[in-house]
Amino acid sequence: MVEITLRVNGTEHSVSIDTRVSLLDLLRERLGLTGSKKGCDHGQCGACTVLIDGRRANACLALAVAQDGREITTIEGLADGSDLHPLQAAFIARDAFQCGYCTPGQLCSAAGMLAEGGPSAITGDLAADPPLTREEIRERMSGNLCRCGAYVNIVTAIEDVSG
């Protein structure tokens, strides 16, 4: 067991954990933050995506012990009190979810993606900061799967927020 301290959605938590515990299991089982979903538990679906120090990460693959001192943002921390994050409002307005299981990961990934900028694998000029086209959004969100197939509305909602 090891003692770690991390800030989750603006609140500091000190916990004693086994070094093998994933960040996802810590969030869900120890901190009661069940918004991040356990989909595949192998880092392939993106349902568990959270922001670690503002960058997207699959919480099922991140060891909790490695997050000591870091800032974690989950779906529960995207909104500002009762004011929805612009992406959350856009997902609702564009009906960008069906069953909703992937939605927390989609939203966290989209928030991180919008903050990242820079080129993607499909960008012709890797030194450029290309405009955020539908193709760029699809490429940058490709690590987040939706079994219901709501991709068209997800991309449109992200486009609405990206301006």
Please list the strands of the largest sheet in the order they lie side by side: 2-1-5-3-4
Largest sheet: 5 strands, mixed
Strand-residue proportion: 15-25%
Shape: globular
Count of alpha and pi helical runs:
5
CATH superfamily of the largest domain: [2Fe-2S]-binding domain
Helix amount: 25-40%
SS-based class: alpha+beta
Number of strands: 5
Contiguous low-pLDDT stretches (5 residues minimum) are: none
- Taken in chain order, the helices and strands follow as EEHEEEHHHH
Class of the largest domain, according to the CATH hierarchy?
Answer: Mainly Alpha
| Second CATH tier, the architecture of the largest domain | Orthogonal Bundle
Q: Give the distance, in angstroms, between the N- and C-terminal Cα atoms.
A: 46 Å
Mean pLDDT: 95
Number of domains: 2
Give Rg in angstroms: 16 Å
CATH topology of the largest domain: DNA polymerase, domain 1
Pfam family, one: Fer2_2
InterPro entries: 2Fe-2S-bd, 2Fe-2S-bd_dom_sf, 2Fe-2S_ferredoxin-like_sf, 2Fe-2S_ferredoxin-type, 2Fe2S_fd_BS, Aldehyde_Oxdr_Iron-Sulfur, Beta-grasp_dom_sf
Keywords: Iron, Metal-binding, Oxidoreductase
Protein name: 2Fe-2S iron-sulfur cluster-binding protein
